[in-house]
Amino acid sequence: MPALGFFAPRFAAETAPTIFIALAALVIVFGIGVVVVGRRRSAKVKDGGFATQVGAPTVAPAEKPAEQPAEKPSVRETLVKARSSLSGAIATALTRSSITDSTWDELEESLLRADLGVATTTRVLQPLRKLVASKTVTEPGELMTALKNEMRGQLGRVSRELRFDDSLQAPNIWLVVGVNGSGKTTTIGKLGAQQRKLGRSVLMAAGDTFRAAAGDQLQTWAQRSGAEFVRGAQGGDPSSVIFDGIARATARKIDLVLADTAGRLQNNNNLMDELSKVRRVADKGEGEVTEVLLVIDATTGQNGLNQAKQFSEATQVTGVVLTKLDGSSKGGIVFAIETELGIPIKLVGLGETIDDLVEFDADEFVDALFV
Fold it and tell me: Which residues is 206 bridged to in the sheet?
């Protein structure tokens, strides 16, 4: 016992620092744990998790307001560039106190800049010159009104309705032609979706076998709209794809075949020869070709007129779909195509969504240019 009494104080003195250090370590570890847990809870709340304090009211997260559907753009809104190019110059010409030679020069220049072309510009201005010469029109404001009426008259003489023959006991066939990049395949997709909404059954034939992504793109549109779909091998014969599509549509009693076609081959002659062949094959099938729609990019201006001439000779174009009109200052191409070639503008693309492919309204178009 005396030995125990001798060693106890010594043992206590030696172990005290160790115990103190251990306790300090425990306190530090506990503190770190509290901080970590607190941060995790904070992060959880930020991520949408649930965390409340005792006695604090639970607040439900605010509901996200429902997204409103985007308002459909008007023709007036989408023709900003074309209007600024055309009406700005015309307004300058017609703000003069009287009608002079300078008025005619400025009017002619403004119409040419808007891509009406020389022949169409002459055709539009010639009747106005007669009105001024006969004193029927004497003021610049009256000349503006006469110009609008003349432009309406240039566009108001053709039927713009898409041809669909309900009496056929076989599919209607709409061939869609145009150069690559004009929006041809997208136009087919939008047409198909619109026709499906009208209650018609649709088959899309991917006849553009030369552009790698064309078939995949058209297949996506077919899936979206619930249309049937036919494609061929990459680089294969486009005519055979169209023929197979018509045969399948006939067998399944499908109302409408929308046929995509090649937009580029080795050279222009090859392309036109191929399109002529497609047209002949389509005419030989069970269905009937009721529309040949040429898709033209409005930003190409007078090049679009040249395209219309060449494609019309190869395929007997019945109507034009003018795309990208919202991004073009070349609205005058509408007048050039209709007055020089007699091919009606049937549809215009005013944006990217399906509802932005709309029927062309000549009066609305002219009014939008002058607003």
Answer: 231, 260
Of the ranges 6-10, 71-75, 290-294, 367-371, the best mean pLDDT one: 290-294
- Greatest mean pLDDT range, 1-15, 71-85, 214-228, 350-364: 214-228
For residue 325, give every residue at least 6 positions away whose Cβ sits within 8 Å of its Cβ, in sequence order, or none.
78, 79, 82, 298, 331, 348, 349, 350
Percentage of residues in the chain with pLDDT exceeding 70? 72
257 DSSP β-pair partners: 173, 203
d(CA 86, CA 114): 6
Place of tokens 């989408």: 78
What is the residue type of 116?
L
d(CA 117, CA 123): 10
d(CA 46, CA 299): 49
Question: Which alpha helices (DSSP H) does the chain contain, by range?
Answer: 2-46, 75-78, 80-93, 101-113, 118-133, 140-155, 184-197, 214-225, 238-251, 268-284, 302-315, 333-341, 362-370
Instruction: Specify the amino acid at residue 110.
Output: S
Q: Is the CB of residue 170 less than 8 Å from the CB of residue 195? A: no
Whether residue 126 contacts residue 154, with contact meaning beta carbons closer than 8 Å, is answered with: no
pLDDT confidence of residue 262:
87
Nearest partner of 174 among 153, 189, 159, judged by Cα: 189
* Dist. CA 40–CA 214, nearest whole Å: 50
Residue 117 phi/psi, 5-degree rounding, is: 85, 160
Phi, psi of 200 (to 5 degrees): -95, 140
Model pLDDT for residues 159-189, shown as the tens digit of each residue: 899 999 999 999 999 999 998 888 899 999 9
Q: Are 304 and 339 in contact (CB under 8 A)?
A: no
Look up tokens 């030995």; give the residue. Answer: 3
* Whether residue 220 has pLDDT greater than 90: yes
